[in-house]
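Revision sheet: structure tokens.
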Amino acid sequence: MANIIEIHSLEQPELAVFTKLTEAQLRSKQNPEKGVFIAESPKVIGHALDAGCVPVSFLMERKHIEGKAKELLSRCGDVPVYTADSQILEALTGFALTRGILCAMRRPEQKSVEELCSNAHRIAILENIVDPTNVGAIFRSAAALHMDAVLITPSCCDPLHRRAVRVSMGTVFQIPWARIGESADQWPEEGLKRLKELGFKTAALALNADSISIDDPKLMSEDKLAVILGTEGDGLSVNTIAQSDYTVLIPMSHGVDSLNVAAASAVAFWQLRWR
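Predicted:
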């Protein structure tokens, strides 16, 4: 049974996880086993629970305890549930956008690249994408459009960033993901070498003169293909493009030269899905 705790101030130290800690502090890079993330809304929290994530505490409007959160709380034992009327909680920036329910959860154990890729045919690689909105949108497309896994480079935004989780609508818990390398010097050389050893051909999305169209039959016939998407603005690094098996573009019209990386990911994932 949930442990209901009335609060009268957002300054209470036990609420710091919701109100004060930065994303870096939540992640606890020095001690990842102690790291947490914040999930928002019943749907997203439900997906996280389905994936085996362990809840630490809730923060919600009182009305949701017997309403929207009732089913969630029945799955969470005696986890602390901090609650108050909406007037107090609205003092927390952005709380009104969370549908009234936040949950702090333990970060799940990270799987290895080899585990994720062992039976995969299509994977997405996110190179240094820093905007959590884009990361969340790409995860949603990857889950919906037949990617088997997502790998992120060391400098990429954390998929469990609060906004990335929200924008993904919880799909960060539905599609497996891992970091390919722990430090920036392990990508692209080491990372691309690992992918090759795992049997993957790599397709770098870039607007180069020698790029092939995304509907080229050679791409469609590959049994194991990694689709590499680059950071906002600069795109993929020169080294990544040079060391990839294919350089690929999405043909454009009306003088448009490129798409937002999240939009491009949806086109690429659908076109290059494994048949």
